[in-house]
Amino acid sequence: MKKIVFLLLTLLILGSLFWWGVKRSAPSVKTEPRLVVSGYVPYTLAKQIAGDSAEILMLLPPGAEPHSFEPTPGVLIALNQADAFIYISDELEPWAKELAQTVGARTQVLALAKSFPTVQDPHVWMNIQQAQLMAYQIAALLAKIAPQNRAVTDENYFKLASELDDLQTQFSQALATCKYHEVVHIGHLAFGNLLQPYGLTLTALSGTAHEGEHSVKKLTELIREIKDKQLPAIFTEESVSPGLSRTVATETGVQILPLYSIEHISKQDFENQVTYAELMRRNLQSLTRGLICQAS
Q1: What is the C-alpha separation between 293 and 232, in angstroms, rounded?
Q2: What pLDDT, in 10s, does the model give residues 74-90?
Q3: Are strands 233-236 and 255-258 parallel, antiparallel or unpaired?
Q4: What fold characterizes domain 29-171?
Q5: Could you tell me where in the chain the CATH 3.40.50.1980 domains are found?
């Protein structure tokens, strides 16, 4: 009986592989390029540029930890069928670096931050200018792999570029009026690239990865600093346990405001296809409120 079951399973697997191979070798009538992207940052930029002219698969599900993602065998199949694989960087996503080495000859690989200057904080998209460069790279890649859609993707790219230009102006004008210039983040160092262009400083509870240790000593130092400087607010993000923020707020009497690193996305925001610019405007709203800027 066991031999019969084993034989049936073997035939089933061989049959599946055969039909998969036939499907792969059959002439394709599709015109849409297939993109596989690592997480929400390349996903939302590519989605705005490509619109409905491309199939886009995001590997990281909403809420997943980008620094330690574990790819499944299905990911390898998706990459083998993709026209392009887009991710942020080897530093932020070492698993993506390994995947990039497994793609076939037909799959273009784009590491968006590869040409950027080396910085300690790998969350490079939080700098709006660098997000603009990322969008440009994605548009150029789409023009290469799907020239038949060039009119659509070019139009969408220029709309996105204009939106990001306006966004940068909004940040520059609003954050130039702040009473306070220090952002205390009860989380990891994900916002330095956002704050630095506007003369703001960041103090965070842990390093650049979410799994950083939240020591009692560091927490005590933060509470003392908030009291000494009479800061009006602390900032946190959706993926961080609210208990730490509540502890600090209870000890200091400050308000808690959200920041969005965009590498993490809630299921609701994903379903609503909330864009990079929308999430950054949420950040601006929190910053102007928490730092007491005139725009608030």
Answers
A1: 12
A2: 888 899 899 999 999 99
A3: parallel
A4: Rossmann fold (3.40.50)
A5: 29-171, 174-290
| C-alpha to C-alpha distances, 73 to 10, 59, 76, 102, 216, nearest whole angstrom | 19, 12, 5, 12, 40
Q: Which residue has the higher pLDDT, 295 or 184?
A: 184
Digit-coded pLDDT (tens) for 86-109: 999 999 999 999 999 999 889 999
Residue 288 near residue 257, CB atoms below 8 Å: no
Q: What angle do CA 43, 183, 160 make, to 5 degrees?
A: 30
Topology annotation, domain 174-290: Rossmann fold (3.40.50)
With a cut of 90, say whether residue 70 has pLDDT above it: no
Q: Answer whether 238's CB lies under 8 Å from 260's CB.
A: yes
How high is the pLDDT of residue 51? 96
Tokens of 179: 């009473």
| pLDDT value, residue 204 | 86
Report the Cα 25 to chain-centroid distance in Å. Answer: 34
Phi, psi at 125, each rounded to 5°: -70, -15
Closest CA to 256 of 233, 289, 223: 233
Longest dimension (CA), the chain: 78
Task: Give the pLDDT confidence score for residue 12 in this predicted structure.
Answer: 37
pTM greater than 0.70 (yes/no): yes
**Half-sphere exposure for 87 (CA within 13 Å, toward CB):** 23
